[in-house]
Write a structure and sequence with these properties.
By secondary structure, this protein is an all-alpha fold. It has one domain. It has three helices and no strands. The chain has helices at about 5-45, 45-50, 60-85. The model has no long low-confidence stretch (mean pLDDT about 85).
């Protein structure tokens, strides 16, 4: 049973739309992550209260985020770079 060119085109267009949504979501996540890191760098530990109001933390969260967010940014940038040719 052949799908035919019309069905293939429909599947291809749906895939491209899904990749477009994924790429858009990744870019938004990247910007939000950069904003969180900038806030942490600008405000120090006080930023935790802004980012996570009402959260009782032991101060370790601040240092964990300072360590993990740059790695997360690099991963998001890499994933975006991998997907952009698929636009």
């Amino acid at each position: 049973m052949s799908l035919g060119y019309k069905n293939f085109d429909n599947i291809w267009n749906l895939w491209r739309l899904d990749m477009g949504k994924l790429l858009s979501n990744l870019k938004a996540s990247l910007e939000e992550t950069k904003e969180r890191l900038n806030l942490l760098n600008e405000r120090g530990v006080e930023a935790i209260n802004i980012l996570y109001p009402g959260l009782n933390y032991g101060g370790m969260l601040y240092y964990q985020l300072l360590k993990s967010l740059p790695k997360e940014i690099k991963q998001l940038e890499k994933r975006i770079k991998e997907l952009e040719p698929c636009k």
